[in-house]
Every structure is written in structure tokens, then in C-alpha cells.
């Protein structure tokens, strides 16, 4: 499948990842439908995609006509079954909860052709287990994108037990069509990147909790010492500590003690300090930007 044959792409979940993935397909020539039951989330996502394209135009990276055409290819829908009807590709980006993902793909699969690809953007859950509820599970694959999608080039393609070679090849072609680089990962808890990132972020929180260094200094160490684009605590704020906690709990249950969630993460989630999306995580945010000196201090 490629942009030229105009196969419909459906993205389920209008959060940060769904917004980014929908932008990637719409701006690459695909008819794209973004689905969410929350109309406010859909409005924010639509505006977010418009802003990404608008910023591209202002910076001279995107032509005005291309931006307009991209938005013309994008639509939103609150009805999953209606949106999924006849789709060539569906990618779910809903909450990292197995039951919710299974419910979404079960409902969507009933409306899609047997040769359509169904994908999950899960960063840690079992692709094989999700695929088990789908007719023709050989067409199910993990497509793990990275945030922010419009800047990050990598996609992890995750083979479940039933995923066919044909599905992997078609998914590779899709990634190429939206200017992403794909790697293929045999299903394993946490894949490659989520497993390493979760461990790094968890250890950084343990260091903060134990008083090893301040949040700012821990993040600076990774940025300046290892050339990471952002520190692990900044990244946790961007990802959302509720999402990070869910991933850690899953990895802890499947891979053992080294992934036990730091108590400080549990405390922050209980307090509603989830990161950028709530305006307060390890750092405090105003207008989406971190406030200088607002990071948690060593020994919190």
C-alpha cells in the first residue's frame, strides 16, 4: 500500500501519539481519519496538526499548498465503526491497557477488509495477545512510533507470533511512504527502546529520590555527557508519568525486579503530577514550557 492508491488510514486515539501519527500520514498523501470518543480531544488534535503544518510553512519547510492539501486529507470521527469501514490500515494509540486495546481492535476489525493491516502503537504490551482477538491475526503488527512523531524518524515494527512476512513488508513500505525508518523487533516486553528508556527513567527517579542530584542536574548529565536530546526526567514529563508507570509495572511483572517502579513515580501519579499534560510533573510548566528552577530537588 502507498499514498498513490489512496488507501484510508484510521488512527484511533487523539492524544499526543495519535495526533502525530495522523499528521504523518495526512501530510504524506494518505486519506486519514482520526478517531476518539472525546470531541474536545479531537478538536485539540486537529488544531495541533494544523499548528505543526503552519509552523512548517512559517519556517519554510512546508509549502502552503502542501499544508492545505494535508489538512484537506484529514478528518475526525467519534464513531470507530463508521471510521474503520473499508480502511486499509488502522493504528490504535489508546491507553496502555490490554482490555481497552482489545476492545478497540475487535470493534474495528469487524468493519475492515480481511487484508487490511491492523496495528498497535503499544510501547510494552503483547502484540500477540492483542492480535488474538482479531480475525486473520497474521495481518496484525506493532507499529511503535516515537514522540514527537513529526520529528522522530524511527518506527519499531513488532512481530507477534502470527504476524506474516507479508505484513512486515507492507508495514515497512508504509513507514518509507511517510519518511520513517523501520526496524523489526520480535515481540518482547518493552521492545528495544521502551525497555531501555523505562529503565533509564526509573533509575533517574531513584537517584532524585535518594538525593544523588537535583532534577536539573540529572537531566543535564544525560544531555551533556551522553548527547541525549533531553534528560530522562524531562522525557518522563513529556511522555507522562502515568504512562511510564503503566509500562514499568508491566515490565516489572514480566522481566523482574530491576523494573520495579520507583516509589516517587507512584507518589507523583497519585498526586496528579503527570507531566506536561497536567502542567506539573518533575518540572512545572506554563504555556507548555518548563519554568526555570521548578524541578524537584534532590532527596524529595
From TrEMBL:
A Pfam family cross-referenced in the UniProt record is 3HCDH_N
3-hydroxyacyl-CoA dehydrogenase C-terminal domain residues are 192-285
Q: Where is this site: Important for catalytic activity?
A: 144
Q: Which residues bind NAD(+)?
A: 13-18, 36, 96, 101, 123, 147, 277
Q: Which InterPro entries match?
A: 3-OHacyl-CoA_DH, 3-OHacyl-CoA_DH_NAD-bd, 3HC_DH_C, 6-PGluconate_DH-like_C_sf, 6PGD_dom2, NAD(P)-bd_dom_sf
Gene Ontology annotations of biological process type:
fatty acid metabolic process
Domain 3-hydroxyacyl-CoA dehydrogenase NAD binding per the UniProt entry, residue ranges: 8-187
Q: Is the keyword NAD in the record? A: yes
Q: TM segments?
A: none
This chain belongs to the protein called 3-hydroxybutyryl-CoA dehydrogenase
Name its species. Answer: Pseudomonas abyssi
Amino acid at each position: 500500500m502507498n499514498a498513490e492508491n489512496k488507501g484510508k488510514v484510521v488512527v484511533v486515539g487523539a492524544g499526543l501519539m495519535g495526533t502525530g501519527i495522523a499528521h504523518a500520514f495526512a501530510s504524506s498523501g494518505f486519506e486519514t481519519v482520526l478517531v476518539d470518543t472525546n470531541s474536545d480531544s479531537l478538536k485539540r488534535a486537529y488544531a495541533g496538526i494544523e499548528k505543526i503544518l503552519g509552523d512548517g510553512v512559517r519556517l519554510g519547510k512546508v509549502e502552503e499548498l502542501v499544508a492545505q492539501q494535508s489538512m484537506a486529507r484529514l478528518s475526525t470521527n467519534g464513531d470507530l465503526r463508521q471510521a474503520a469501514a473499508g480502511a486499509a490500515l488502522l493504528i490504535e494509540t489508546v491507553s496502555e491497557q490490554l482490555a481497552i486495546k482489545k476492545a478497540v481492535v475487535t470493534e474495528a476489525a469487524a468493519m475492515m477488509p480481511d487484508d487490511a493491516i491492523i496495528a498497535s502503537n503499544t510501547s510494552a504490551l503483547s502484540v500477540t495477545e492483542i492480535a488474538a482477538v482479531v480475525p486473520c491475526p497474521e495481518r496484525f503488527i506493532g507499529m511503535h512510533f516515537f514522540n514527537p512523531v513529526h520529528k522522530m524518524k524511527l518506527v519499531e515494527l513488532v512481530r507477534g507470533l502470527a504476524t506474516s512476512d507479508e505484513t512486515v513488508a507492507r508495514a515497512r513500505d508504509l513507514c518509507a511512504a511517510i519518511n520513517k525508518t523501520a526496524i523489526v523487533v520480535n515481540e518482547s516486553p518493552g521492545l528495544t527502546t521502551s525497555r531501555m528508556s523505562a529503565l533509564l527513567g526509573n533509575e533517574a527517579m531513584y537517584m532524585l529520590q535518594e538525593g544523588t542530584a537535583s532534577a536539573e542536574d540529572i537531566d543535564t548529565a544525560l544531555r551533556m555527557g551522553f548527547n541525549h536530546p533531553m534528560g530522562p526526567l524531562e522525557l518522563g514529563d513529556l511522555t507522562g508519568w502515568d504512562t511510564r508507570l503503566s509500562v514499568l509495572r508491566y515490565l516489572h511483572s514480566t522481566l523482574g525486579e530491576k523494573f520495579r517502579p520507583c516509589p516517587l513515580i507512584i507518589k507523583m501519579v497519585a498526586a496528579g503530577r503527570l507531566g506536561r499534560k497536567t502542567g506539573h510533573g518533575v518540572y512545572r510548566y506554563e504555556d507548555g514550557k518548563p519554568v526555570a528552577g521548578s524541578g524537584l530537588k534532590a532527596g524529595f
